[in-house]
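Sequence only, no structure available. Ideas?
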Amino acid sequence: MGDDARQRNPAAASRLLVAAERPQSMIGQRAATEPYVTRFETEVTAIDGRRVWLESSYFYGERGGQPADHGAIGGVDVTDVRFEAGEPVHSLAEEPSFKVGHRVLCSIDWSFRMYCMRAHTASHVLYGAARRLLENLDYAGIDIDERRVRIDLETSTTIDDEILLELDERVSRVVWESRRVSWDDVPAAEARNREEVAFSEAIDEDALANGRVRLVTIRGENDTGSGSRPGFGNGATVTVSGGNGSQEPWDVTACGGTHVRNTREIGPVTVLGCSTRDDGVTGIELAVGPAAIERRTIEKRITLDASRILETPVADVPDELQRSLE
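Reply:
I predicted one. Tokens follow.
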């Protein structure tokens, strides 16, 4: 924070420093705790040129491979959100006309927020599938952009086309099965001792605070226990209850990102392929939403073209191609 911002509101600057030092009442960001909140009003606590601090913020700051939210503060576009000293710093497209102490209306781009929620949850679904198919598996990170999601894995299994197809099918089935997704925090010692928890303190530091870990759980197929169900499109939520909480979860991962409340909200998703880096880490790529639809259309067009050229039904295309090659 610049000296001019401190001079404009020294009390607010002091409050920011105190807030960075005190223990937080929750792990991670408010956006991750309440991902369906996309409009809120709050007070401006400090300004340094185009950089703005807010009393409270539901903007997701770039962390752990997930990009920052898009949106606006007081009508000015937000270009980036980063964490400094434990506080979200909002970078604006231009210097704002509002001042320190003003209350401002903030809006988050729902389309992009929802895409990131879907994409991040899809990565957890894929990891749950990978744990059932790959040997000696460790999670090595995630990267989300607007066209694809890459999940980095360490495994002794050679990932061939058959495994990619199996991963793709299992991911699609979990989306279809409408499995409940929830998040909560538990003592770090408990997370370390639970065999089903994917937890790396080096990678998941944004999910760890004050000796507790934030876990995101994708429930078992028939587990419809108590939770919240989102209202589509407007971020509203209602509480539902009942069901059986004893089913084995599909995936439990330490994570500080934003997620949907049910796998059905992920929508279209498809596995694109994989690549292995020099350090042995294998990245599996997914497409979610429009990019997934485009990829499926391309693949279907190629299959139909092959069927027409070979004059054989789609199901017989692989055998006919093999005969042609021989």
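Residues 300-326 form one domain.
Hope that gets you unstuck.
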